[in-house]
# Entry
Amino acid sequence: MYLEVELRRVFCRKCGAVKQEKPSWLSRRNPFYTERFAWHVGRLCRRQTIKDVARDLKLDWKTVKELEKEYMAEQLRRAGKPKPKVIGVDEISIRKGHSYRIVVSDLERRRPIWFGGVDRSEASMNMFFHSIGRVNSGRIRLAVMDMWKAFSKSTRSHAPNAAILFDKFHVLRHLGDALDKVRKQEYVRLAGKDRSFIKGQKYTLLSNRENLTLDGRQSLAKLLNANNRLNTAYLLKESFGQLWSYRSQRWARKFFDNWKESLKWRRLKPFEKFADMVERNWDGIAAYCEPENKVALGFVEGLNNKIRVVQRRAYGLRDEEYLRLKVLTLMLDEL
# Structure
């Protein structure tokens, strides 16, 4: 359907220029389409690729992309300027070659509020605090992040009132890496039939037991019965998750000291290195015991998974501004 509209042109006596009327119902990025149609395209692009939407609506893909950008920009405008009190900080890879961007989320409102930087350095993290201003930075009471020093250093400098909490899932990922190193060591040490129990069981060993199928649980039991060192490492890994159930730092510390003591005479070097890492970052890990710091730690990881889905669906995104808008509107309601 096409609309034919006469637009008024007005001569301005003050500046001497001729100006044309701009109807409020027209798209801001493309005056050949209405704003209502742009919102329709934007809603479709939340569920489909640009290519699919362009094919269904018989439009050029560049037109669809620009209309979606207008839709996402309006979503952000209506969401308002962020004034977070609890933030989650993480980085994502935007292309091969260690090219990173920082994503900051408001964990109370459960949405990303900033995407930017040029890498994952302290200077890039500083850009976030500059964007929200000194007053809003001072209101932040808790910052959840991984153990990357640049993030914590920048946060301490710009948000002095914020407690720093190291993300549980990043800590457990290091523990999973330690278990995998033990698995590799055992594979190299053993030979013949003993080695066959370990081959191909990496993900069976690293997965949560409740997520395994019946065959996976049987393979895990067979593996642990066949190798005592792996069995010990697995039990240590499973028990460590109890640390985040304590409501007192004192009792959490007592649990960790006992867990660390149980490593003696076990010949599990990767686990000893992991324990040293936890010791160095203890304040940021134990901060979760405080009642006011009991926040949903899975949101940041869940958001990263959504971002990877967007990147995979588009086979990579070269337009960084488009990726920024996509990330910042992932959790916002439709218009």
About this structure: The chain has a mean pLDDT of 88.
